[in-house]
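NAD(P)-dependent dehydrogenase (Short-subunit alcohol dehydrogenase family)
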Amino acid sequence: MARNIVVTGAGSGIGAMCAQLVEDRGDTAIGLDLKNAEFEVDLSDRSAVDDVVRQVEEQYGQVDGVIANAGTQTNTPLDLKVNFFGARNTVHAFRRLLAQSENGRVAITASAASLQPTDPHLVKLLLDDQESEALEYGQSLADQGQMAGYANYSASKRAIATWVRRVAPTEEFAGAGIGINAVGPGVVATPMTTQLLSTQEGRDMAFGAMPAPYNGAQRPEDIADVLVFLVSGLNRSMTGQVIYVDGGFDAIGRGEDLWHAPKSMDQVDSR
């Protein structure tokens, strides 16, 4: 049975590729973006998100999946508004319709930047839903320059990836039959990075911060393939996962041991 999949950020880049792949599979892509999409909406505006959900329901009735891909990298509080609050609010707004689907699925575009050093206070403000305080603090970081301001981006991606893992096993999602996962791209060759990757100096900067020994910069379709799989009926059990599609950066940054030293059997309480 064909599925209706909402794709945010569908006007360009990874989002446009997701919409194309959804349609290629025989499903229906419902595009949301500031421009060049079926529904033009500012996803940083919560009331606008609620309005567009009503419009989508009126036109399509059923929503089976949401790819919350829209994002910014400005190193300002706009990143917090779109990447964290916008993505989270979009998922919450569509949750009622997703719960009515036989296979409700959500996939969020996080980032390998979620693995980079960031500002833990800002991450906590986001996860504690302290929006005005987070935006004020993020502006204070941006006022210090691009290096400090980058925490707006990395914290937004750390927080949304953490939120996915936090809510995935809850009654609100797992209990309602909604699977939710995230994808963490590394350096992606998109119009936004064309200039950066066009020079050796730019490539050295990009891959110095985020090495990608396996095939270098990812293409939009490399990320879209995984996002579209996650909201398909083929994904029957995965939830709460953050899948890094990053050319190897995760393995370099976190090393081979994700699980810490295993306890020996005599250290396990058998009661």
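thats it. Residues 69 and 109 are 5 Å apart (CA to CA). The longest helix spans residues 77-100. bye
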